[in-house]
Amino acid sequence: MPREGVTRSGIRYLVHGAGCRMVADDGREVDVDLVVDPATGERVEAFDAWRVRWFLDEAAGDGLDTAVVNAACRRLAVAGSLREVVPGRWFALGPD
Q1: Which residues contact 18 (CB under 8 A, 6 or more apart)?
Q2: Residues 48-67: tens digit of each pLDDT
Q3: What does the alpha-carbon distance between residue 25 and residue 38 come to, in Å, rounded to a whole number?
Q4: Which of 23, 61, 71, 82 could bond to 76 as cystine, CB 3.0-4.6 Å?
Q5: Which of 93, 75, 78 is closest to 67 using CA atoms?
Q6: Tell me, what's the pLDDT at 84?
Q7: Looking at beta carbons, which pairs linking 28-32 to residues 24 or more positions away fall under 8 Å?
Q8: What does the pLDDT read at residue 25?
Q9: What's the predicted TM-score (pTM) here?
Q10: Could you give the angle at the alpha carbon of 17 between the alpha carbons of 12 and 20, nearest 5°?
Q11: What InterPro entries does the record tag this protein with (predicted)?
């Protein structure tokens, strides 16, 4: 897969450093990093509170504090909706 392109569903992407930025047709952007999951040793697409806050600010301009977003991600991880790949820092979709 090239480091830059468009998926079949029309999402533009750009691989950068340890991650990938994806842009939808409406201009919204999502950025993830590839992080080694200590439990499996495999790389997973992960995000942190800063990236979630950045996406929310871009989509709705809500101005949430990063600490509030991080706490919400941790609650979702405890509930099983997210995985906490690196405690207090990196999260990924879906349970183990």
Answers
A1: 33, 34, 35
A2: 888 888 777 766 666 678 88
A3: 35
A4: 82
A5: 75
A6: 92
A7: 28/55, 28/58, 28/59, 29/55, 29/58, 30/55, 31/55
A8: 85
A9: 0.73
A10: 25
A11: DUF6896
> How many residues can be counted in the chain?
96
- Residue in 53, 56, 49 with CA at minimum distance from that of residue 84: 49
φ, ψ at 13 (rounded to 5°): -140, 155
Among 95, 86, 96, residue whose Cα is nearest residue 37? 86
Are 93 and 85 within 8 A, CB to CB? no
CA 78 to chain centre: 17
Instruction: Kindly report the average pLDDT of the chain as a whole number.
Output: 85
